[in-house]
Write a structure and sequence with these properties.
Helix content is about 50%, strand content about 5%. With about 120 residues, it is mainly alpha-helical. The chain has a single domain, classed as Arc Repressor Mutant, subunit A, CATH 1.10.10. The relative contact order is 0.18.
Length: about 120
């Protein structure tokens, strides 16, 4: 059986890819949960509550912001000397979860890859 490196087919969208990257990471899930219950808060508060290092939290926040899952009250480039506050965008979280659910539950199996030789069907013996 060939190893799946990256799914093929029209069901794999940018939102599905973002959902897999974001929700497959415990640190990012922890930040989303914390912000949902406590936001908007400053990064220092998130670091105190998280089980990750300050550097990891900073990296996670960038990823979450780039995907639109969190909202920051100060735009990038204007944060020097300011303490931005972070909050979760629940609509975006639901959108990404919906995309992932749609991909997992509603798509057809991808066609066999043409560059992989198919072995005999185990049920045909």
């Amino acid at each position: 059986m060939p190893k799946i490196v990256h799914p093929i087919g029209p069901g794999w969208t940018a939102d599905v890819d973002a959902a897999m990257q974001l929700f497959g990471n415990r640190g990012q899930n922890e930040i989303i949960r914390y912000l949902n219950g406590h936001g908007p808060v400053r990064r220092g508060e998130i670091v105190e509550a998280a089980t990750s290092s300050e550097a990891s939290v900073a990296t996670h926040l960038i990823s979450l912001e780039n995907s639109g899952v969190i909202i920051v009250d100060v735009i990038p480039g204007r944060r020097h000397g300011r303490a931005p506050r972070y909050s979760v965008d629940l609509d975006r979280v639901k959108e990404l979860i919906g995309a992932l659910m749609d991909y997992l539950l509603n798509c057809q199996a991808p066609p066999p890859r043409q560059d992989v030789e198919q072995g005999p069907d185990p049920g045909s013996q």
